[in-house]
Structure formats: structure tokens, C-alpha cells
Amino acid sequence: MRSVILILLSLNILGVQGQPALKQTTNQNLIWFAYMNRIDLSPKWFIGSEVQERRFVFPDKQHQLVFRSHLHYRFAPEWNVSVGFTYFLQSPQDPLSESTLMVPELRPHVELAGANKFNSRWRIDHRYRIEKRFFRNFEGEDLLSGYTTNFRARYGLTLSWLISREDRRALMLKLSNEIHFNFGKEIVYNHFDQNRIYFAVNYNLSPQLNLEAGYMNWYQQRRSGNEFYNRDILRINLIHRFKLKNSQNS
């Protein structure tokens, strides 16, 4: 059933990308830097947080600044549920814009995540997330009072392959796809929001520290329905994990 759903979602994406000549696509190049950490509180509970700096490449200019934190409860060996919150700052979508306005977005979410392990080298991770998004109202260069809101559903699928492991240092390849859908009374044309395809190499610098580098294609539909962004992104992530004493058996 999951395979059928993924095929249907893929066909939906191809249908959107195959719209007639009225479609307008803006191509952009970006680089994302991220620091992510995870603190294991106990065998059942852990906290994740991250900060991301997302920048245009040509010219070099900030695109987005992201702060996110989430609390997880593990109810099965490979599955957990979580609640979280994101504080998001959006700069102009055009890197040539002279505007310096950064528009805040508040984004609480709930999530279900888990994995299927085939053997010691192959696994598939699933992530189901529902977000409530609050966009600060603005006009020109001024922020106004109040927010515009909508909901967004996300599903992410990641295939991981462990290439080697020596002295507790592992080299892994990842291939993932995540699709986003908007819903709510504010959404008229862009019920499909975006699709992200990602390929990365992940390496253990130490038992607690991972470095990940990869390429992402981010295809996004705008509110108008016939305007799209097609973004090529280099991602560099530093991933840090901590364990408290009472979580050693996690």
C-alpha cells in the first residue's frame, strides 16, 4: 500500500511539472549550513534541535534562517512520536532584491517517525509530519500585526546504505524524497507545495559527531499556481549526539 501511495504521489508531481507553457519556473542555486543535535534523556525520551543558515550562492545573500526544536517519545524500538516548534525567518525570494525585510513564521508540528531495517547495512526511514504555519503579515518593508495561517502535511522516505564501519566510524550513503501538501481555507491553487529529492554522504568524525554533505533538488509551487521555483542546493550538516547517564541503555 505504501508503494502505491508513493507511485501516486510521484505521478502527481510529474503532472504538476508537466503543466502547459503558462508555467513560469525560476531557477536558483543555494547552499544550506546546518548544526543539528540530539540529546538522549532516557531509553524512551530524546530532544532534537537544529539551526540552519540558508543562503543564495550568486550573489551571496541570506535566504532563510531556521531554528527548530522537538521532543520525542520512543514507543517501539524503531518508532517514535514527537511535538516540535520552528521559528523561521524568510528573506526576499529574489537574491537581487534590495529589501532587507525578514518575515517571521511560527510553525508548531506533530510527527510520527520510524524505520524498517532489512539487515545491518540497509534501512528505510519514514517521517510523517503535520504543521500549522503562522505567517506574519507584512506590507512593503513593514511588518504588520497578525498572522495568515494554513496547514501542511509532509511525508519523507529515506533509504540508507552503510558502506563501511571501522573503529566505530561509519560511512553511509543516503537517498531521500520528501513531498509537502498544503491545506486550509487560505490555499487556492497550490495544494501541492513542494518536493525535495536529496542525495548525501554521511561520515562519523567520532562516535558522537557526524558530518554530512549532499545535493538537494527543491521544486516548489507558489501561491499563484503557475509559478514555480526549481532550486539546486548544496547541503552541509554537522550532527551532534549527546547521551545522559540514565540513557546509556537507549
CATH fold-type name: Porin
Largest sheet geometry: 11 strands, mixed, barrel
Give the mean pLDDT. Answer: 91
CATH architecture: Beta Barrel
Rg computed from alpha carbons, rounded to a whole number of angstroms:
19 Å
Number-wise, the strands total 11
Span from first to last CA? 31 Å
Proportion of residues in helical segments: under 10%
SSE map:
Blueprint: H1 2-17, E1 24-40, E2 45-56, E3 61-76, E4 79-90, E5 103-117, E6 122-139, E7 142-166, E8 169-183, E9 192-206, E10 209-221, E11 227-243
Parallel strand pairs: 1-11
Antiparallel strand pairs: 1-2, 2-3, 3-4, 4-5, 5-6, 6-7, 7-8, 8-9, 9-10, 10-11
Give an overview in words.
With 250 residues, this protein is mostly beta strands. The chain has one domain: Porin (Beta Barrel), CATH 2.40.160.20. The chain is built from 1 helix and 11 strands; from the N terminus they run αβββββββββββ. The protein has one helix at 2-17; strands spanning 24-40, 45-56, 61-76, 79-90, 103-117, 122-139, 142-166, 169-183, 192-206, 209-221, 227-243. Strands 1-2-3-4-5-6-7-8-9-10-11 form an 11-stranded mixed β-barrel. Strand 10 and strand 11 (227-243) form a beta hairpin. The two termini are 31 Å apart. 8% of the residues are buried. Residues 14-20 have low confidence and may be disordered.
